Amino acid sequence: MKKIIFLALMAVMAMTAMAQNRTITGRLVDKETKEPMVQTTVQLLTADSTFVTGGVTNEKGEFSIAAPKSGAYLLKISSIGYITSVKKLMMEKDNDLAMGTVQMTADAIMLKETQVTAQALKVTVKEDTFIYNSAAYRTPEGSTIEELVKRLPGAQVDDDGKITINGKEVKKILVDGKEFMTGDTQTAMKNLPTSIVEKVKAYDEKSDLARVTGINDGNEETVLDFGLKKGMNKGFFSNSDVGVGTEDRYSARLMGAHFNSEARVMGFASANNVSDRGFGGRGGGFGRGNNGLNSSKMLGANFNYEKKDVIKLNGSVRWNHNDGDQLTKNSSENFVSTAKSFSNSLSQNYSRSDSWNAQARVEWTPDTMTNIMFRPTFSHSSSDSRSASASASFADDPYLYVTDPLSQEAFDIMDKDSLMVNSRNNTSLSNSSSNSYGAMFQYNRKLGNKGRNVTVQLNAKYTDSNNKSLTTNNVHLYQITDALGNDSTYQTNRYNLTPSKNYNYSAQATYSEPLWKATFLQLSYKFTYSYSKSQRSTYDFSNMGENFFEGVSNTYRNWNGYLDRLGSPIGDYYDEELSRYSQYKNYTHDIELMFRMIREKFNFSTGVMLQPQSSDFTQDYQGKYIDTVRHVLNVAPTLDFRYRFNKVTNLRIRYRGTTSQPSMTDLVDITDDSNPLNITKGNPGLKPSFTNNLNATFRGYFEKTMQTVMANVRFSTTRNSVARKVTYDETTGGQTTRPENINGNWNLNGGLMFNTPLDSAGHWNVNTWSDASFANNVGYVSLDRKSDSQKNITKTLGINERLSGSYRNDWLEVELDGSLNYNHSRNKLQEQSNLDTWQFSYGANVNITLPWGTSLSTDIHEKSRRGYNDNSMNTNELVWNTQLSQGFLKGKPLVVMLQFYDILGQQSNFSRSINAMQRSDTEYNSINSYVMLHVNYKLNIFGSKEARQEMKFMDGPGMGPGGQRQRMGGSRRGGGGFGGPMMID
Description:
With 985 residues, the protein is mainly β. The protein is 7% helix and 61% strand.
């Protein structure tokens, strides 16, 4: 009996010992919102602040870490935007410790630019959303969110400001989930300071209609949603930056915002002549200089108001002015003939523009069953341009014979070998203005609580524009002689006035009927009418002689400088055949039926849209009057399947088929020979094309290893796509183009993003973005001008890789990165046009933050090109940028920065594009090497007077990771709401 009792006691003790693992558990929530705090860093330190173990909270805000043995510890909880909390713990007798619910308080001191250096995770996934932690991507002092976005895995910002994330273009910017300058991504990217951003979310936002009806209309937009730091939802903050530099460079930026619990107002102003260029190269991208010398000015304002569950108001207005000075050098090879065809051009273009844009959104929810939305828009724009260019076409690659193909010496050498085809000199003036008005009204009513609802949407838009242009064109044909045996020449000089008017309106009704639980049948009908009219008046004064307009100043709107040279009033030169009147009416009916299922683990929807369409095209051109009516039926099937493995890992497969009709101008059987070197013909036998698009995306976040993975595959193929069948005349260098249906165009591409920390504290991190693409481009090649064109296939393989590894702690971040871009192109009928080009780079980025307010940011990258026809393009460029900054005043709101761009002066501006018709290399003028001195000042006033008074007592020293001292907000004695036994402050 005693043995039994003894064994039982031993078993109980063993189970007790197994149950007590010295586990520390708790749940973190925001003190104000009570929302769980996801991915918050929790670290266990020894009494002397040596790191023991750590982890991050899950999607419920919960954490669990184990102490290796009993004893005294420090528990450190930190999250960017919150007061870091360090608590003393005593683990006794191997007992567990339950902390209960821990409330974290927003750190307003940190919002005033004090340092908090928790090693935040770079990226996580939740549902279909990528969440990037801005604290994990260190940007130079004073930078805007464009610099932050450039550092995000899978993100790219090209030379024109186009943003892509995971292969998809970003069309909209949100701030804290609210619309911001709708229709304009540049204002946010160039003006919002990085210092106010806590997180960046990337996801696909549904259209207004799909959001309230649940009907997937395929009109999703990829958005970037910038979440501001906690505590910034009440109060005022501003950011001003002024910079002057060498090479007459300047930059000025001002931003101010006022927030309260219901409304927020933001205002912006900027002026610069550095193309809004941020600091730093990051990642060794190619062509990252400026495309020309550009200056811009901007004023803008954005307003948001929300009364929860009642009304939402959003509005924005902006003014933009731009001046451009672009010198472009181009070298291209045409794939339109088995005869060799090369061309070079050099053009100088000056431009200026002004634009006003305004938009608003009113969303009213009068009751729980009704949603009403109204979106008015307005825009006005005007622009001027003036340009001069020289170009030439050759029967062989000119770089095999000369170094400067556009020099007179090169012309003589190439002409001697009968390789000159033509040369051209052009000048042009243009002016345009446009006014546009639009509105959308939407009404949605739920019919019960089972998902039954009806929606009506009305849209209208009106645009009125005027265009004026004057061009002079001198052409020299080397392969054709005149009656005297000399090379043939001719001039084309024209003045065009083109007023145009466009408007459209539509009405749409949708209805959703529940079939059974979480399963719906949805029907949508939409009618659209669109109208456009253009009436171009052309005045022709060609063949006046090559030097007839010599000496005329090619300045903006100097029409009279040219027209006064004419011997008669301009009206006498009116050319009825070259003038063109066109009118287009289009009637479209969209009928869509959709089946939709919603389950805990998956969503599934499939449907089809039928689109009967009628078009009426009228044209009076070149003495021919045409009135054409066309009736077609478009079909667009769709499928969307989304499977959730868990809340942070999912797979989505989407298919959409679309039918597109040829343009009416392509269908009109008319030959336009107004430009002898570019003759176009219509084709009334064109068929509609049908495109299949298949997309599969996997997103995953693995909490245990803190790894993030994104993989996608996209396939597209088009039947009866419209290609340009070009007949090339090797004697003139001219082309005759006719649209033709062709099959065989398809492309496949895939991408993989992988991000992983190498340690639990997040000091070491590795990120890779890999993508590959293959395109099968089908076009036509003319063997010679006497025979018909043949089908030609250009196969292009592209491989891109960006790999980076980084180390960061409280004061230092070092990142090593490299990138590779390889293009492999094979041409079926023109093997001499096969291409293999390489672009690769490698380098380092370093950010150093010192405790007395000094910081240093530098990046250096070696960039190389190989495989280009022009040997001058096969270069090695060592590009080095550096910024040194110093903070002043309490909290360091005043920062002085000295920036050195392209210190070694080796950066160039070069790009290459390849398609079925040609290979084109382009280089631009720019100023890449200069020095800027910036002064940046931030003013932050958050919360009530009492809250600000309370903040004064929070400005004390704290403990950073691993025991490193740092400036941070500190915490009040006994704050944080910790519960559980043996918790000692």
